[in-house]
Prior knowledge:
Radius of gyration: 39 Å
Number of helices: 21
Shape: globular
Strand order of the largest sheet: 5-6-7-4-3-8-9-12-13
Strand content: 5-15%
Distance between the termini: 43 Å
Structural class: alpha/beta
Amino acid sequence: MAKKPTGSKQGPTARPSAADKTATTAASKLPTSEAAPEASGDASAKPPQAPADATAGGKQPRSVNTSVGTEPKPGTVLQAPAAKEKPGPAATKPVSKPEPRATANPVEKTAHPAKPDSGSSASASASPKTTEAVSRTVPATAPTTDASAPLIAGDRRQATKPSPPPRPSAAPKPKPIEPTQGSLEQGTISSPLAAATPEPAEEPQPAPVVSRESAPEPQPERPPASEQAHAPPSEPMPEVVPAPPPASPPAPSRPSLYVVQITPELAAVAKVGGLADVVFGLSRELAIRGNHVEIILPKYASMRYDQIFELQEVYKDLWVPWYDGAVHCTVFFGFVHDRKCFFIEPHSPDNFFNRGSIYGFKDDVLRYAFFSRAATEFLWKSGKHPDIIHCHDWQTALVPVFLYEFYQTLGMKHPRVCLTIHNFAHQGVTGVELLHATGLHRPERFFDPTRMADNRHPKALNLLKGGIVYANFVTTVSPRYAFETKDQGQGFGLEPTLHTHHIKYGGVVNGIDYDIWNPEVDRHIPVHYGIDSIDGKYDNKRALRHRLMLADNDKPIVAFIGRLDPQKGLDLVRHAIFYALERGAQFVLLGSSPDERINGDFWNLKRMLNESPDCHLEIGFDEDLSHLIYAGADMMLVPSRFEPCGLTQLISLRYGTIPVVRAIGGLADTVFDKDFSDRPLHARNGYVFQDYDNPGLESALGRAIACYRNHPEHFRELMKNAMRSDYSWNVPGQDYLNIYDYIRDA
């Protein structure tokens, strides 16, 4: 790289002739419409060739003459190095007083004026186009003026008249100039200008004729010293820019999408786990962003019909192929808290969805295989061609299989499919009967290890594997869980399939609906509070103790909310109950299990601790009580064996209840330890332990209780950090839109 130019000395430029002044004045009065064409006049001008010695030997010059013989293209002006500057005369139209420049300022790039049109006069001073010129400085003790900065045609700046310098014996030979990065980008290389022989100021030279290939523009006469002393530094004239055309309405940043969610669960009407909350929250977020979203789910007999508004029949005769015949179905439409929902009701002797619960039957695989076929058939026969079909878990994993095996040949070539896996522990493993029921047939095709054959049992079919193979993109509910399922043995046998399709596999952290889980508006708690009114949380704590008949004292409350499932770390939950009581804390549990043995075990534990004033176990589920526990507890325990994402810790953070979690899956992506995290202090929001054992649990829970007792001000700041954490659907919603765009463009 060439050294920074240091400037070269030149003699004072001559005073302009009367003809030049007249031409300059006339040019400045030209209208904008006449000046605008000048901007494109440099497109045909070719840069001059550098002297032959510019590249000889490959050596870099010690100093660079920054005077330019031809006007470079816009954006390539070189600026002379700054020195101590005497106050110069005022510019013709000063814009603003510039900031003082450092004396060791390197060469700078500034906006460069356009060259005059190729057919214009050779005199550069007649150009009506003015722009910002390069500021030049004069050494305080030097008798000559540094003329190394380029002068631009049309520049009306007044120059400082230098003191008469001694006449040198010969002008210095110009040195080659290295092209700057800006000039290379613009395709222009500035060539050096031969130094002029200085003359005494009392004997001005005739005004030179300025052309593209000659010296810079002549400068006006220097004003008297008395005027110069009080004049501000010289400034460039503003560039004459034509008025922009009227702004047109901004184009949308992205097109609106038609998205159909096919799901077995939906919060408020048919909820078993976190899947229902994800579909409920994501659908609303996508709709808020201007997309058309519809939801298709089975019409369960056990649904909350009081949460469905304007339920009506919209498709009477939907015949779904099944075995060697077809099943007659009716489709209903209704609104679930502003979500547009279609409910498919089959009229079949198998009584698929007219049962007392959602899951837990021996024919669950066939029930949801039929639902997947019915949903796809409804889209085709109703003429719906969504941009995106978003499926969830193994229950709807056959939708992409049906779409690409049957319905693409019938004209449904537009939709793309995104499959979200909420839990790899449930995969829908079945036998060959599935092929006969759904019409897929051809066992030799679908028992192929690259399609639907189960990786552990080659004579079984795996619905979730089929979804991974046929979907355009596969997501799970946190980046950490995506890594664990693919590389750390949490895929329950699907690791080889995930490695094969890793290019279309990723994780997106779930969000929570802040319209529901928000202590500032929660209708289930007695006192609303926020980060600026956090004392209201203690009023809810007293209300929780009163409802559960706990002692009203200064002890912290440790809570657990969730399914009593081995995945949730039930042995650690049991140990935490006794450990918290020993350390002077209270404990509250809310949950139930579909396994009667587990329920029985916790009922026995409830009877054992029923007389304790510091412990309450609620076996079952109560929506109102869950909100009150989130608002009134001080700590929330989540000691899972594995956790795809987890909503408990996200809700706890929103309510200022400090989560105590194991570093696994989505828990590791959302909770950061107060003492050992590498994140900034304001981003730490809980307590984390690594090993799934009692000492690991005690290390985190013990630190949380100790901080509450010994450093209440630190614990209060930790509560505020937790409440500042944003785990709404804002970021996940954009992540899913990015995925939709990716598979649509692929």
